[in-house]
């Protein structure tokens, strides 16, 4: 090991190079041994990867050449950055391989002052691999990909978008803001689950040049359709959540169920949760059981289906849960209940 660095004259420098030439130039046998070692390690790694359960995610290819008529269209260069916000919590011990994970565009994605994708545009990702943490210090693994973005005119923008994370030490979630997709370094204590929390932001990049119709000038806001109101749906029912929801992402633990009591005078035929607070969720949550409880009806939901959509706001957060459904007699209703959410990071 070198202990010091010295400046020498040209003659001494050449002499030193000749002295260490045998260390600098490998023999043919050295190259052969190194090649065999690399090949053996590659084969072991390939076999290990082949044993893992991974979802097939199709690669989206953009047209190889520009359309004949590009009037009114916008050229999106390759490697254009687009910031996405993850809309749900994901955890290697609770999220399954092949599941859909929803994102939204965090801010207008514009090229030359024209918008390619409006803020809040929904983006679909896929969990290519989710492996729970195991004994012996084996950490959990998450691999989520976003192969393409879809513009308003239906055009596909192939992307470089991958979150590869493992259950090693991670900092505060706020530090994840602005992370780039691609190969993101291992996140989250060894032997713990890998996870990401709703609200974290990541950057994808377009994989190649593409032509799309612009979605309006930057800064222009959409008129977002309003969610159904009580007058649209008929009855307004009162709801009450019986217990708080507890989520421990590093340990991959969450409350098994969420129970909400409704004060309906007739049995509900169907109850779905469509929003938390003012935020509509892409895929509504349906009650897995409805049973008589006192003078009302108890609706039971899967705990993780609830917790995956909830966001932390302090140590304990009361979050409005918006529901709608129908009674057995055909009447429709809307209902709201406040659910207390506790996120335990340690």
Descriptive terms for the model:
3 domains, 5 helices, 346 residues, ten-stranded mixed sheet, single chain, Lipocalin, nine-stranded mixed sheet, 13% helix, Immunoglobulin-like, mainly beta
Chain-wise SSE layout:
Layout: H1 10-19, H2 21-24, H3 28-50, E1 73-76, E2 81-86, E3 90-91, E4 100-105, E5 109-111, E6 114-117, E7 122-131, E8 141-145, E9 148-150, E10 156-160, E11 162-166, E12 179-180, E13 195-196, E14 201-206, E15 210-213, H4 230-233, E16 235-241, E17 245-248, E18 253-254, E19 257-262, E20 268-276, E21 279-286, E22 289-293, E23 296-302, H5 303-307, E24 316-327, E25 332-343
Parallel strand pairs: 12-14, 16-25, 17-25
Antiparallel strand pairs: 1-15, 2-4, 2-14, 3-13, 4-7, 5-6, 7-8, 8-11, 9-10, 10-14, 16-19, 17-18, 19-23, 20-21, 20-24, 22-23, 24-25
């Amino acid at each position: 090991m070198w202990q010091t660095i010295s400046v020498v004259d040209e003659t001494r420098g050449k002499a030193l190079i000749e002295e260490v030439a045998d260390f600098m130039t490998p023999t043919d046998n050295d190259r052969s041994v190194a090649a065999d070692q690399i090949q053996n390690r590659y084969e072991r790694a390939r076999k290990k990867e082949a044993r893992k359960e991974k979802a097939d995610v199709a690669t989206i290819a953009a047209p190889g050449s520009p359309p004949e008529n590009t009037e009114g269209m916008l050229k999106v260069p390759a490697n254009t950055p687009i910031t996405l916000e993850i809309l749900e919590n994901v955890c290697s011990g609770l999220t399954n391989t092949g599941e859909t994970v929803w994102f939204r565009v965090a801010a207008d994605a514009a090229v030359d002052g024209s918008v390619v994708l409006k803020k809040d545009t929904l983006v679909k990702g896929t969990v290519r691999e989710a492996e729970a943490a195991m004994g012996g210090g084996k950490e959990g693994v998450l691999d989520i990909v976003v192969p393409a973005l879809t513009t308003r005119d239906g055009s596909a923008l192939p992307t470089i978008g991958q979150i590869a994370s493992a259950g090693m030490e991670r900092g505060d979630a706020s530090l994840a803001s602005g992370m780039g997709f691609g190969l993101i370094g291992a996140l989250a204590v060894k032997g713990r689950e890998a996870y990401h929390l709703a609200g974290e932001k990541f950057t994808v990049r377009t994989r190649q040049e593409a032509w799309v119709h612009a979605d309006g000038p930057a800064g222009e806001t959409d008129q977002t359709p309003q969610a159904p109101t009580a007058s649209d749906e008929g009855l307004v029912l009162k709801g009450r959540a019986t217990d708080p929801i507890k989520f421990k992402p590093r340990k991959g633990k969450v409350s098994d169920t969420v129970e909400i009591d409704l004060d309906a005078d007739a049995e509900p035929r169907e109850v779905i949760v469509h929003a938390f607070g003012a935020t509509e969720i892409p895929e509504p949550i349906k009650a897995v059981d409805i049973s008589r409880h006192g003078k009302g009806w108890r609706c039971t939901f899967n705990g993780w289906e609830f917790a995956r959509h909830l966001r932390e706001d302090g140590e304990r957060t009361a979050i409005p849960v918006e529901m709608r459904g129908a009674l057995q007699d055909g009447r429709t209703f809307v209902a709201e209940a406040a659910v207390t959410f506790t996120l335990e990071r340690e």
